[in-house]
Predict the 3D structure of the following.
Amino acid sequence: MTIDYDGVIIGGTMQARKVAMSAARQGARVVLVEAPEAVDRQIRRQVSLEVLARFSQNHQQAFLPGIPPPITPQVWSALRHKVTLAADVAYPHLALEALAAAGVDVVLESGQFIPKPRFALATASRRLAGRSYLLSPPTQVKMPSIPGLAETPVLTPDTWLDLELPPQKLAIFGRSPDAIALAQGLALMGTKTTLISRG
């Protein structure tokens, strides 16, 4: 059975949730389709970089200018704890419960477009048709093709805080805002950081 909507939003990002909430508040019948936990990862990534920026500046200011501050296991543990606390309370208005209460139908499944008999998005449990479709999927980390990289332990913007102890040295590949924010924050924390990008 096909369910009709004003808008079908293929999400997995905070931006998709914002659009869904806004459309529902304006009276549109919308459905949000996203993979389970996709937004949780994005929220944790964004919050971790925001907390790192504030935490590293405060940490740097506690020491003499030009002298790298020590990055102790206790400091690292405090940073990880602050990120966890901040992520738990971030964006409550975009929680799945808040979206459902506003009238957004939420489908936590993957889907694919099917052209016949009528263009729609098919998930494991339903077919969703809309007057319009919005694609706002999450970004994926792509590993560069560098000899030897596959055999090297690699962290991503989603996993760098999984380290139990602070990194003493770190090479960061990329020139995205996330890569730059991570490099700057860790450098201020005392990690010897190298940022490598193309062009």
Summary: The mean pLDDT is 87. Residues 2-194 form a domain with the FAD/NAD(P)-binding domain fold (CATH 3.50.50.60). The chain has one domain: 2-194. DSSP finds five helices and eight strands in the chain.
